[in-house]
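User: Here's a protein and a ligand (adenosine-5'-diphosphate). What would the complex look like?
Assistant: Let me lay out the input and then the predicted complex.
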Amino acid sequence: RSVSNGVHQPDACDVLARVFGYESFRGDQHAIVEHVIQGGDALVLMPTGGGKSLCYQVPALVRPGTGIVISPLIALMQDQVDALTELGVRAAFLNSTQDWQDTREVEQAFLSGQLDLLYVAPERLLTDRCIQLLERGKIALFAIDEAHCVSQWGHDFRPEYLGLSMLHERWPDVPRIALTATATDVTRREIAERLSLDDARHFVASFDRPNIRYNIVEKQDVRKQLLQLLKQEHAGDAGIVYCLSRNKVEETAAFLCANGIEALPYHAGLGAQVRAQNQSRFLREDGIVMVATIAFGMGIDKPDVRFVAHIDMPKSVEGYYQETGRAGRDGLPATAWLAYGLQDVVQQRRMIDESAGDDAFRRRLGAQLDAMLAMCEAIACRRQRLLQYFGQRIEPCGNCDNCLQPPEAWDGTVAAQKMLSAIYRLMKERGQRYGAGHLIDILRGKATPRVLENEHEKLTVFGIGQDLSDQAWRSVLRQLLAHGLLVVDQEGYGTLALTEESRAVLKGERTLMLRREAERTARTATPKSK
Ligand code: ADP
Ligand code: ZN
């Protein structure tokens, strides 16, 4: 069935109803669709589940020619094409999984005007063969999906995306629509610049996902905490558990299985077949828990993911938003749970220091990590903070841990002074740098072998912090880091150093309100009984 080849141009609402079976457009969809149908370029920022696909699918069906969809998600192309074919849309894809015969068939279909939509991987699109092919056919529009992949600073940079600026040069009259769920102003500007979308209209949807309950807890025995969350609040639910490393993915999946939870691992080190199989089980069966690195999830359209748990701190707020956004796409209540600790900060700081790239690049990664840490240590509404990061303002949400159980704030000025001066004393010992554990031992006056060996029991700061527990001191330490009053030293592993701003606190010129860490377990926040 052809919807785009008729003499008479169908209208957008008609296509929406007839082909997709929907009554009305959502949010900005209608305006976007009309804009692109008229031949305008568009940059669309919409959260996951917001309905980005229709924004290019409908205009592709209305405008004469084929809509070329550029997507990095090769593994999902088959599914996308199958779903469209079922609706009677003439769709196909070109990627590295096909043999030459399939490829030829698709090329012929395109050339003879029998395709409404053609999905192409970016590296494929940039080949001479593909460019020559496209020049011989009729193109309705270019849709650049996951457009944030062009951002070199983002969490998902793909170098091939940089080549896509040529679309504008070669096909100046074909409208282009770039879409992403990544929303910071910086990324948005970068996308517009790198894809030469100078005249594109920007459509920015609200990024709030009100049905997701954000909950960030201090990492203690993280496996136990996770198990408690899964058993007590999400028994039988489908969900995703994100870990930083492949090893941890394997271990955690095995641990959950041993505890009666149907968990599957997913990371880039697994064979393509295992990955495809696990992904397909997650999508098709009920109640599977996917334990994964961030290699998993982009483009996954599973509406009933009830929770996303991070057992390691994400590298950036953007990444955190993306990953948690995979929960609750059906609009029903869902949980975004994160456990983090000082070790996460130390480990990630080290990874940044050891990463390839120039200083500016590392500084940017460092700033992203700081923003994430500040998010974790926030005293006020998490959602407010999250959306503020994306330039959107809301009232406190009533559906995050901080709203439901407001953390107590306490005057941590004196504690901060104690900690900072202990670090100052230790730093004076040239060549010798000490990590968090040793520092807290000194504050609490513990005569450990390491303390005695270095005669640190003779320091004036020895034992001045007996009023707080180890846990409380670690909390102070994290918050000092979050406030930029301390840095994890660049040179040594896990050692701490003062910053310019620390001075004001040490001199008593600045007071510091800190978040009181409750003795907590894995509990997600529940409203206080009145
Ligand atoms: P995104 O790509 O932004 O994550 P999708 O395009 O996959 O989101 O859409 C998310 C879900 O919402 C899909 O199941 C889609 O069919 C549905 N959807 C999108 N637009 C509409 C609409 N106007 N009316 C009803 N359902 C819609
Ligand atoms: Zn809130």
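Summary: The CA atoms of residues 12 and 34 lie 7 Å apart.
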